[in-house]
Design goal:
CATH class of the largest domain in chain B: Alpha Beta
CATH topology of chain A: MetI-like fold
Shape of chain A: globular
Oligomer: heterodimer
Structural class of chain B: alpha/beta
Number of strands of chain B: 12
Strand content of chain A: under 5%
Number of domains of chain A: 1
CATH architecture of chain A: Orthogonal Bundle
Number of helices of chain A: 12
CATH class of chain A: Mainly Alpha
Radius of gyration of chain B: 22 Å
Number of domains of chain B: 2
CATH superfamily of chain A: MetI-like
Strand order of the largest sheet of chain A: 1-2
Number of strands of chain A: 2
Number of helices of chain B: 10
Chain lengths: 289, 296
């Protein structure tokens, strides 16, 4: 009887574990099935390198270059802002702060992750957008930069918590050894702890990047959504995610526009998959050594 | 214990099924489509449900294209649309076995808005087309200050976007080659356009007349018929002098009957049309008799 019970539980746990993999595969198969239909009539080269996104014109143009670059500008900007802040924050929480301050900061960072993206987008629209416009003397504050700042807030919790884990994994003996050799705390952090936690830090950056590039609602509200090839971060841009969100509702199932949006989704999936894969590789490389 | 649980579950299941069946028998209507019309549709639905407490009407927005897609996919009873259904959509609907009916429910006038401090107060359709295709990029060229123009548009799922594309950007030739310039900002809602224009002296955008507020200035448009610049007011939209007025439409997936027909008759009644005026749109001219006729 007991053995029978054990078997059932084992089976259930196994099924739940497999389910997540099966879901990912099913999603990818569905995306491929719908997205690849576009390329029966539209060339892949034109899709990837076309400079114009006019999906409802006759004939339609599905050039995603402005969308890809838009996503990259926003994401790189957000990464550039959130990574130094995130590293500093994680070092402070993990190495310097003690007792109640550490607990308060940890809770604060986790709370940041709990703010819904549309709320951040709305706050950005009424506070950050006018500020950016006045501060840099731009014609509008609806720019890639505004999106980057807002998304940096969203990437922070991911980056900080994974980095903090990486710092915790550095053996205590390293720290003690360094202090015993007469190194200061800063020297210990810079020369000993950061290099030994490097792969974890890179993984944190990657996962933060993946988090930002898939973000939709906030960017749709504050980046202006103009499908131009961006020349600077202070220009309006249109991201891949915002394009899918803004246009999916209007398309008729089975139209070229519908397939094109799925093709954009494949692109997005491939990018996030690659980034997550790299992050995973960095994490495990450390453990193998 | 287990038996009790099963009974409870059965009870809950039966209850859910019966209530949903009940809701259906009372007559529910799914209305979907144009964001321009969503508040108007809501007002109609509320007034209608006051008179018919047993009716259940759900009104949602998303854009005219969204509504028409829902009609083709068979997930709504009435589409609110601020543009004509396209040939392509009509063919798809027919292929899916829908016999599309069109009804004019009200009239909307579109207004181009600028910041109140902007000295420009009148524009021609040609000038607007040049601005939205980025051939005219400085306000100086339209009689304003020496300042770059920030151009705002609605997203592509908006009926207003398509209307402006055909009537303004392509100057009435719906198959024309002109496009919105890539530099045009696509805003997710009319509210977002009003907010940005109220904030930004260099901006120009367009919204339905129902969205006009004192924080923005609506420019007069040159009308062929009037031979002069015409202000976007209710009066001018009704007498046809204002060039950018358009019908607000209902599309139905077949000949209306039952509660749907009652609702449409209500919308076209005097009471329904007075609601149109309350919501800052333009009521239909009185003498015009309308029935739910098939579109050829």
């Amino acid at each position: 009887m007991r053995r029978y019970y054990e078997r059932v539980v084992e089976g259930l746990v196994f099924a739940s574990g497999m389910a997540s993999i099966i879901f990912v595969i099913l999603i990818f198969v569905f995306l491929l099935k719908e997205g690849l239909m576009l390329f029966r009539e539209f060339s892949v080269i034109k899709f990837l390198l076309g400079k114009h996104w006019y999906p409802i014109s006759e004939p339609p143009q599905f050039g995603t270059l402005p969308l890809i670059l838009g996503s990259l500008w926003v994401t790189l900007g957000a990464t550039a802002i959130s990574v130094p802040l995130g590293i500093a924050c994680a070092i402070f929480i993990g190495e310097i702060a003690s007792g109640w301050l550490r607990e308060v900061l940890k809770a604060g960072v986790e709370l940041l992750a709990a703010i819904p993206s549309i709320v951040l987008g709305f706050i950005g629209l009424v506070t950050l957008v006018p500020l950016v416009k006045n501060m840099f003397g731009l014609s509008t504050g609806l720019t890639a930069f505004s999106g980057s700042v807002m998304l940096a807030f969203m990437a922070m919790p991911t980056i900080v918590s994974i980095m903090e884990d990486a710092l915790n994994l550095v053996p205590k003996t390293y720290r003690e050894g360094s202090i015993a050799m007469g190194a200061t705390k800063w020297q210990t952090i810079r020369r000993i702890i950061l290099p030994s936690a490097a792969s974890g830090i890179i993984a944190a950056v990657m996962l933060g990047f993946g988090r930002v590039i898939g973000e939709t609602m906030a960017v749709m509200m504050i980046t202006g959504n103009a499908a131009v090839i961006p020349k600077s971060i202070f220009q309006p841009v249109r991201t891949m995610t915002a394009t899918i969100a803004a246009e999916m509702g209007e398309t008729v199932q089975g139209s070229d526009h519908y397939f094109a949006l799925f093709a954009v989704a494949i692109l997005l999936f491939v990018i996030t998959f690659a980034v997550n894969f790299l992050a995973d590789w960095f994490l495990h490389r450390k453990k193998a050594r | 214990m287990r038996r009790q649980f099963c009974t409870l579950l059965g009870l809950i299941l039966a209850l859910t099924l019966s209530t949903s069946a009940l809701a259906q028998s009372r007559g529910s209507i799914q209305i979907k489509g144009s964001d321009t019309m969503v508040n108007l549709g809501q007002a109609w639905a509320e007034a209608f449900m006051e008179e018919h407490p047993d009716a259940l009407i759900a009104v949602t927005g998303g854009g005219s294209g969204t509504g028409i897609a829902a009609l083709i996919n068979g997930t709504c009873d009435i589409v609110q649309s601020s543009r004509d259904i396209s040939e392509k959509e009509l063919t798809l609907a027919t292929q899916n076995g829908r016999e599309v009916k069109e009804i004019v429910a009200a009239i909307d006038a579109l207004a181009f808005v600028v910041h109140p401090a902007n000295p420009v107060f009148q524009l021609t359709i040609d000038e607007l087309s040049a601005i939205f295709t980025a051939h005219l990029t400085n306000w100086k060229g339209a009689g304003g200050r020496d300042q770059a123009i920030l151009v705002l548009s609605r997203e592509r799922n908006s009926g207003t976007h398509v209307y402006v594309l055909e009537e303004v950007v392509r100057k009435g030739n719906s198959k024309g080659p002109e496009e919105f310039a890539p530099t045009v900002l696509m805003m997710p809602s009319s509210q977002a356009i009003v907010q940005e224009v109220a904030d930004n002296p260099a901006a120009i955008g367009y919204v339905g007349m129902g969205y006009l507020v004192p924080t923005v200035k609506a420019v007069s448009i040159f009308g062929e018929e009037a031979g002069d610049y015409v202000e976007p007011t209710l009066e001018h939209a009704v007498d046809g002098r204002y060039p950018l007025a358009r019908p607000l439409l209902f599309y139905l997936p077949g000949t209306p009957d039952g509660i749907v027909k009652e609702f449409i008759d209500f919308v076209l009644s005097e009471r329904g049309q007075s609601i149109v005026l309350d919501m800052d749109f333009v009521p239909l001219p009185k003498m015009k008799e309308q029935t739910a006729e098939s579109r050829e």
